[in-house]
Amino acid sequence: MPRSTGSTALWRVADPNAFAALAIDALVGWPAWLYARVGHPVGGFARLIAACEVRWNRPAIPEARRRLSGVATLALLLAVTIGGALAVEQAARTIAGDWWWLVAALLAWPALAARSLYDHVRPVADALAARDLSAARRAVAMIVGRDTAALDEAGVARAGIESLAESFCDGVVAPLFWLLLFGLPGVWAYKAINTADSLIGHREPRWRAFGWAAARVDDVANAIPARLAGILLCLAGGGGWRVMWRDCRRHASPNAGWPEAAIAGALGIALAGPVAYDGVVHDKPWIGASGRAAGAGDLRRALAIYCRACALLGLIAGGVALLW
Question: Where are the transmembrane segments (predicted)?
């Protein structure tokens, strides 16, 4: 298959860097020692967003103007990210020649979180299996925003499984999807959008106007990946289709319900339901309401399904690499 020489073309669907990046991430993740020394690239996004927020999101500024400022912040973030990624990709092609894709894989690797997600959820499962509820609460508090101090075993297991399913989309499937489509500019543009949404895309009065654009664009960026994530989890779990189609819209997010409903159906359990944030209980609808309460074994089963779903992703990326 002839390889295009257009170094600035965005369409990269035939490049093998996605498979290589996924393989690197599966092997080493983003080690703690590396994070301690160099941090993570999304930290740069966070600093730019924070600088714009301090300047343009003051309470005295009218809401309409703050919404426009939020649009400008996201546009600036994407311009810097995409421009930088295109420049780096051009340099990789020029310097590395036929091996440019390996350099691109190394640069895309930090955008994926397959290994890191497993490494964060596994301690929760281990603590539950050891019947150490205090340790399980501490471990799950590292990956969820809800109140965890009073969670029972079912609540901890449910929180871990929900986080695993939702993060499978925005930490693994979505970055790989945009990497396959648009190479480094695609994957890092997605990470910039996702970071902006996590920082300012909230409904609280402080963020509602300024973070509006980040939240809406993140919804669009995750629309296809979320549905792909649900399909992959059903395939990996050997079922869950009926619950996914029935309950995917019971989540407040237009996208997160797909992978959560898929894994709830595959495991035969109930997810979501009432949950507390900062001492306030929110009565969320149940997903998989006909299922039983989650337990320690279900979190281990969820991790096994997750690993198989990641393997399916690897087969897809490997097939693309072979076509290239």
Answer: 68-87, 99-118, 168-190, 224-245, 303-323
Q: Beta strand pairing status for 280-287 and 271-277?
A: antiparallel
Q: How far apart are CA 229 and CA 166, in angstroms?
A: 9
Angle, nearest 10°, between helix axes 63-96 and 42-56? Answer: 150
Q: How confident is the model at residue 97 (pLDDT cuts 50, 70, 90)?
A: confident
Q: In this predicted structure, what is the pLDDT of residue 166?
A: 96
Q: Which amino acid is at 173?
A: V
pLDDT value, residue 100: 86
Q: How many helices (H) and strands (E) does the chain have?
A: 14, 2
Cβ atoms of residues 288 and 240 within 8 Å: no
| CA 137/CA 144 separation, integer angstroms | 10
pLDDT value of position 85: 95
Please tell me the distance from the alpha carbon of residue 186 to that of residue 192, in angstroms, as a whole number: 10
Sequence-distant (≥ 6) Cβ neighbours of residue 75 within 8 angstroms: none
CB 240 within 8 A of CB 247: no
Phi, psi of 61 (to 5 degrees): -80, 135
Return the pLDDT at 17: 81
Contact 264/247 with Cβ under 8 angstroms? yes
Q: Decide which of 3 and 160 is more confident.
A: 160
- pTM for the whole structure: 0.91
d(CA 78, CA 96): 26
Q: DSSP 3-state assignment of 112?
A: coil
Q: Are 115 and 25 in contact (CB under 8 A)?
A: yes
Which tokens in the block code for residue 200? Answer: 């300012």
